[in-house]
């Protein structure tokens, strides 16, 4: 058996992961290998028919929990190492992988025999009459995309204990011979935990449960509960900014500068407006400022590796001017605020001046809000940093998670078409560069936040489907983004649709589909 630290040297090969779909196939195959071995281990050694859940990513690694009757099964480091040894043994033997196309009733009998109620329920909503079933030894599973043709091609992985579960480390697509580093991020993990609790509380932990709510006429209530959870969370954040406890009594000083940051399509604009309303309810006088107004003039913008001007990097912002203005405002001075004209590419001054009083709060929205460069010279005790992202906790089933990036991509695609006259192909072509910018400019600063807000709604993909599917079907064979479009179409096929008429005008989702009560 290869020992920890030796596996990468003993097992080498030529699997290339630079292609996005090849990388996804690699990860799916790794999940197949891991879930089979983890499930077999707890059954053989602990006598438990437990569920092995792939819950979410952590720095692009995968976080998994093994649950029995709803409670996590905690394994020791030695037990986790034994599971990893089982996985490596199957890799070394090149255990046969098989794909079989079969009818839904045939597949359903197999899944029910293996206790996979999650897949049994998923098949109920499948519109196509057949399914690709994958087999590894006597173990069967389903994935909503292809896997590798051989187990022996899985040559890089590692398992490490974390919290109540296991982190499955994966190789980096751009460096397939190395595993991604795992650096614990307690703030971000706590948001995942809160989101999982919301899913359990509503009884909607996977797509099948969401479809049940839709088909049984319970979706209106689910939407209202999801919206109420958002409102409650934002209200709690406003209380913290105001320096109060939940009972309204003071427990700290008022935070005068609130910085809201997050990746593309996380809902920063609507969140910031909702937060301002809650601050008013706490007796504050908020002023909403967009950090985009502090872009350098277009002629001064830096160029990226692709030869195009880079609006995403920190160097696109006049951080010195921004910091000077914020410091002056916090000292009670009057400041003339700029407005960036995206047509002319120039900053303009239109007579918008501001002077802050005792109860005034600045709420600044922008992707670089957590970067220390934008708040240089401002005392930290006057700043409140918020990280917002769309963290999807819904899974297709126990082993097929929904990547947060897919939810944000669909949000952006719909918004780009609704409000910016971009096609779905335009959005898909830009997405890799957007993601690269996030990796560089946003994600490294996540843990700097005082609080994190999850902007996802359990029901939103069922609504976005109505808008995204027609756009994706416009992309024809031969176009560069065709394969990615088909992947997203397959993904959306798992969801029953929900009418946008059920979405409240105050919902954050309105930022993307339109018809909202907030100014965008």
Give an overview in words.
- This protein has 15 helices and 17 strands.
- The protein has 520 residues and is α/β, with parallel strands linked by helices.
- It folds into two domains: 7-184, 2-Layer Sandwich (Threonyl-tRNA Synthetase, Chain A, domain 2); 187-513, Rossmann fold.
- The strands form five sheets. Strands 1, 2, 3, 7 and 8 form a five-stranded antiparallel beta sheet that branches. Strands 12-15-11-16-17 form a five-stranded parallel beta sheet.
- Strand 1 and strand 2 (61-68) form a beta hairpin.
- Helix 2 packs across helix 3 and helix 11 packs across helix 13.
Secondary structure elements and pairings:
Layout: H1 7-10, H2 20-46, E1 51-58, E2 61-68, E3 71-72, H3 77-93, E4 97-103, H4 104-113, H5 117-124, E5 130-136, E6 139-141, E7 158-162, E8 165-169, E9 171-172, E10 175-179, H6 186-202, H7 207-215, H8 219-241, E11 257-261, H9 268-281, E12 285-290, H10 319-330, E13 335-341, E14 346-354, E15 360-365, E16 383-389, H11 404-420, H12 424-441, E17 451-454, H13 460-473, H14 482-492, H15 510-513
Parallel strand pairs: 11-15, 11-16, 12-15, 16-17
Antiparallel strand pairs: 1-2, 2-3, 2-8, 4-5, 5-6, 7-8, 9-10, 13-14
Helix pairs in contact: 2-3, 4-5, 8-9, 11-12, 11-13, 13-14
For the CA atoms, what is the radius of gyration? 24 Å
Q: Provide the CATH top-level class of the largest domain.
A: Alpha Beta
Number of strands: 17
Q: Sketch the major β-sheet.
A: 5 strands, antiparallel
Shape: globular
Indicate the proportion of strand residues: 15-25%
CATH superfamily of the largest domain: P-loop containing nucleotide triphosphate hydrolases
Number of helices: 15
Overall mean pLDDT: 91
**CATH-derived topology of the largest domain:** Rossmann fold
> Structural class of the secondary structure composition?
alpha/beta
How many domains? Answer: 2
Termini distance?
A: 58 Å
Helix content: 25-40%
Which runs of at least 5 residues are low in confidence (pLDDT < 50)?
A: 1-15
CATH architectural category of the largest domain = 3-Layer(aba) Sandwich
